[in-house]
Design brief:
Elements lengths: L6 H28 L4 H9 L18 H14 L1 H21 L2 H12 L5 E4 L15 E5 L2 E12 L6 E7 L9 E7 L5 E5 L11 E12 L3 E2 L5 H37 L1 E2 L2 E2 L4 H30 L4 H25 L11 H7 L2 H4 L4 H13 L19
Parallel strand pairs: 1-4
Antiparallel strand pairs: 2-3, 3-7, 4-5, 5-8, 6-7, 9-10
Helix pairs in contact: 1-3, 3-4, 3-6, 4-5, 4-6, 6-7, 6-8, 7-8, 8-9, 8-11
This protein binds flavin-adenine dinucleotide.
């Protein structure tokens, strides 16, 4: 067991932190208030090689290990959840899934430009009547000659108006229930595709989230990912990677809560002393620190299993569940520590509280992860290696 970061990972953390401090921190309050998504941040992240950090160099990525992706997510969410979410859907849910399941042709056509950040990827699983219950989805794909004709609608899709490529899921055979779902790579430019942003979100207001629609969309048969009927399995394996990035990001959210709260503890005085001197305030700070350190251990353990090429659904689910709950609680306490000032946007902690809620809902709600963990312990659920796994790290040339 090794808990040390490599020199390369220490440098990576510094690079992302500097970027966040210079390019995100000074503007984020305004972007959040105006509900603006700033795509130029993604272009800058791509320039730094951060949109494909754990994708092998031969596919256009930076070739670093899976825990390096965690470091990027942690540091980005210290700035804002919106940009970590962008990396989660682009790299975690889309690019890593192409790396795991794609044919060589699909990797060349879609993964390479995504890993370089020249094209942006997103992930469309959720529908108006299918969230936790994936098999309830209603989108369909009917084979006609060399094409599939896609019809349906996805909702709550991150980067819906921004992404060039989407990994989407539709029934090719409804009678087979979840064994009848298939995965497709679709492009925004394909005829029959449209998107629309959702307004009035509680948080992640500097992010782009909304609906995508497929109306008699002709998708070439070469864009089927995996085999027909493998879509459910592919979606779940994608979530193993997306959840990992969400869990890592939650650590960054806790770091941001701690930074703001510690600063305020040293400034604000009540009853003749700094509030950091009051025991009940100390308790909130201590809980944040404990949450951060425990979450990190869970995240890096899941990352280590990915590095070894071992199935990690159980460990990733635990990390995601716990880290997001800790982050949500840390943000709530950060507002509490700031008293009434924490209740206004004069301080960043109200944004942290609003932002920390979505990660408790997306990529498996708190309740779904609770059930999964209980099922593992009770022996109702077990993980087997899949027929295709992520390549272990170090990657082969
Ligand atoms: C900001 C944001 C971004 C998102 N981005 C994406 C994206 O990029 N791509 C994508 O595909 N989706 C995305 N989602 C959607 C997200 O993944 C779903 O919202 C999530 O899976 C939950 O589904 P639901 O909202 O339909 O809730 P439901 O599944 O309807 O659940 C409602 C409530 O019932 C509970 N519940 C459901 N089933 C059970 C059960 N069996 N036992 C106990 N409790 C249960 C849930 O925990 C929840 O509390 C995003 C959501 C948000 C908020």
């Amino acid at each position: 067991m090794n808990f040390d970061f490599s020199d390369e990972q220490i440098m990576l953390r510094k690079t992302v932190r500097n970027f966040v401090d210079k390019e995100i921190m000074p503007h984020i309050a305004q972007w959040d208030e105006r509900g603006e998504f700033h795509a130029e941040v993604i272009t800058d992240l791509a320039r730094l090689g951060l949109m494909g950090v754990c994708i092998p160099e031969k596919y256009g990525g930076s070739g670093m290990d899976y825990n390096s992706l965690a470091i990027v997510c942690e540091e980005l969410e210290r700035g804002d959840t919106a940009f970590r979410t962008a990396v989660s859907v682009h790299t975690g849910l889309n690019s890593m899934t192409l790396l795991q399941w794609g044919t060589e042709e699909q990797k060349q056509n879609y993964l390479v430009p995504q890993a370089k950040g020249e094209k942006i990827g997103a992930f469309g699983l959720t529908e108006p009547n299918a969230g936790s219950d994936v098999a309830a989805l209603q989108s369909t794909a009917v084979r006609e000659g060399d094409y599939y004709i896609l019809n349906g609608q996805k909702t709550w899709i991150s980067l819906c108006d921004v992404a060039d490529h989407f990994l989407v899921f539709a029934y090719t055979d409804k009678s087979k229930k979840h064994h009848g779902i298939s995965a497709f790579i679709v492009e925004r430019t394909m005829e029959g595709f449209s998107s629309k942003a959702i307004k009035g979100k509680l948080g992640i207001r500097a992010g782009n989230t909304g609906e995508i629609f497929f109306e008699n969309m002709k998708v070439p048969k070469e864009n089927l990912l995996g085999e027909e009927g493998e879509g459910f399995k592919i979606a779940m394996s994608a979530l193993d990677n997306g959840r990992f990035t969400v869990a890592a990001g939650a650590c960054g959210q806790i770091m941001a809560c701690l930074e703001a709260s510690v600063t305020y503890c040293h400034e604000r005085e009540t009853f003749g002393k700094k509030i950091g001197g009051h025991q009940l305030v100390k308790q909130m700070i201590a809980n944040m620190e404990a949450g951060l350190q425990m979450s990190r251990l869970l995240v890096y353990r899941a990352g280590e299993l990915k590095n070894k090429g071992v199935r990690n659904t159980r460990e990733t689910s635990l990390a995601k569940w716990q880290a997001c709950d800790f982050a949500n609680k840390a943000a709530d306490d950060a507002v509490q520590i700031h008293g009434a000032y924490g209740y206004s946007n004069e301080y960043p902690v109200e944004r942290y509280l609003r932002n920390s809620k979505a990660p408790v809902i997306y990529e498996g709600t708190r309740e779904i992860h609770t059930i999964m963990q209980a099922d593992y312990v009770l022996g109702y659920r077990e993980d087997k290696q899949l027929n295709k796994m992520l390549p272990p790290w170090p990657f082969e040339e």
